[in-house]
Design a protein that fits this description.
11 helices; four-stranded parallel beta sheet; about 40% helix; Cobalt-precorrin-4 Transmethylase, domain 1; alpha/beta
């Protein structure tokens, strides 16, 4: 059996950068706090916490301490509150997400209504809409476009959550263009996401089975699984080797493997090693 690993599998630039920042903070004097998970992977978050960085879900007053902002970013309200409560803020927001923040703030100042295409409850989307005091329109699905609201908009700036399915985003934008006379679309899907999605649109057709590796709360991994499963019914989404069933690979000659942007290299290697062992 041949094992074919996607070139783009695993950590993206933004995740690597955030983890490098976190690693340096483990040597800092005083307490270091992390507002939520630094990235959407349980193993990575546990390692960060074991290194001494404390995960918190709510901001509380501190005499001193460092607050690490995760790769997904945070709202302006959260940043202001953290400063008031005495935290020194270290921002590990992915630069590509920061660029989305800049776009929405700049376009809002120019009078454009901001529309975000993304998962409403996702940390990144919450951070994007939290850049503005004005309520932002979020569209999470082509079947959930609130046309009554859209028709009232004259000027619209559309951005996308950086890990969205590129084809779905373009379909939604095409629909919005029919109702908004002045629409500015910024394709803010990040390059690593585009690269991963380009690979996953061909790999399932070239392999008998596909293994998608990543946490179940990882948005970009979810997209990879959704795209792959439409092209190849023998697609499975796992977070560890323990979740793999040997029966999945019965009669399989070629298995394709890819992994989300928050999946550690050692997790990928362990799964590849296990697959080789059950077919040896």
């Amino acid at each position: 059996m041949r094992i074919n690993i996607a070139k783009s599998a695993g950590f993206c630039f933004g995740v690597k950068r955030a983890l490098d920042i976190a690693s340096k903070l483990t040597k800092a004097a005083g307490s270091v706090y992390m507002l939520g998970d630094i990235v959407h992977n349980e193993d990575v978050s546990k390692r960060i916490e074991k290194s001494g960085i404390k995960k918190i879900n709510r901001l509380k007053k501190v005499n001193s301490g460092i607050l690490l902002i995760r790769a997904h970013g945070a709202s302006q309200g959260a940043l202001r509150k953290a400063s008031r409560l005495g935290y020194q803020i270290i921002d590990a927001t992915c630069p590509m997400v920061k660029e989305i923040h800049k776009i929405v703030k700049d376009m809002h100042k120019k009078g454009y209504k901001i529309i975000v295409i993304g998962d409403k409850d996702h940390d990144e989307v919450q951070g994007i809409v939290g850049q503005l005091k004005e309520k932002t329109l979020v569209i999470d699905n082509i079947s959930h476009i609130p046309l009554a609201k859209v028709k009232k908009i004259k000027l619209a700036c559309v951005v996308a959550q950086s890990t969205q399915n590129s084809k779905n985003v373009l379909k939604i934008v095409d629909i919005l263009k029919n109702y908004v006379s002045d629409l500015k679309f910024f394709n803010t899907i990040c390059r690593p996401t585009r690269t991963k999605q380009e690979e996953i649109r061909s790999m399932p057709l070239k392999n008998d089975a596909m293994i998608i590796i990543g946490s179940k709360n990882s948005a970009n991994t979810k997209r990879l699984y959704e795209i792959s499963s439409l092209l190849n019914k023998k697609t499975w989404w796992v977070n560890s080797r323990e979740e793999i069933k040997p029966s999945w690979l019965k009669g399989v000659r070629d298995v394709g493997i890819t992994a989300g942007a928050s999946t550690p290299e050692d997790t990928i290697k362990n799964i590849v090693k296990y697959i080789r062992s059950i077919r040896s």
